[in-house]
Write a structure and sequence with these properties.
Distance between the termini: 17 Å
Number of strands: 2
Shape: elongated
Strand content: 5-15%
Helix content: over 70%
Number of helices: 7
Structural class: mainly alpha
Radius of gyration: 23 Å
Strand order of the largest sheet: 1-2
């Protein structure tokens, strides 16, 4: 009778562990932005100032191009990403050294959205380049933790599944 209770307990614990690890790796991380235009305005100013072409941000503002770009943005945005997608993004950044708007899954239905998406990707890449060492360390740590979780899962099933 004790062996049956032990076996049932082991099966339940194994299923709970597998389910929690599955949820950890595949559940989505949701990020919401309620003030896209303010963030985009700051990003436009930052990228324009970093471009090396003088005071490009004031040229955007005075020409009305900045307002035109900001009017094409939705007021609110919600982004959902899984830890697996974060791992894939970190691998992409490690290989290419930058992100494209496609890598970041930015909208590109209209020509205005394509332009804004490329501009946002350029801003993200500029920010990542400024903090290159910190970004690489964080990505390496994330990948290490991801592999460690998979190794723990493999080890758990190898030891508990095959040896008992």
């Amino acid at each position: 009778m004790r062996k049956i209770i032990y076996l049932v307990t082991k099966i339940i614990v194994s299923l709970a562990f597998a389910f929690s690890l599955l949820l950890l790796l595949t559940s989505s991380i949701n990020m919401k932005s309620n003030n896209n235009r303010l963030y985009a305005k700051q990003l436009i100013t930052e990228v324009a100032d970093d471009s090396g072409y003088g005071n490009l941000s004031s040229l955007f503002a005075s020409s009305g191009l900045e307002d035109e770009m900001l009017n094409h943005l939705p007021k609110k945005t919600e982004v959902s990403i899984t830890p697996l997608e974060v791992y894939n993004l970190s691998s992409t950044y490690e290989k290419k050294g930058k992100f494209s708007s496609n890598d970041l899954k930015l909208p590109a239905k209209t020509s205005g959205e394509k332009f804004i998406s490329k501009y946002i990707a350029a801003g993200i890449n500029a920010g990542l380049k400024r903090n290159n060492e910190d970004v690489k360390n964080a990505m390496n740590l994330y990948q290490l933790v991801y592999y460690a979780l998979l190794l723990v899962l493999f080890w758990y099933y190898l030891v508990n599944g095959l040896l008992d």
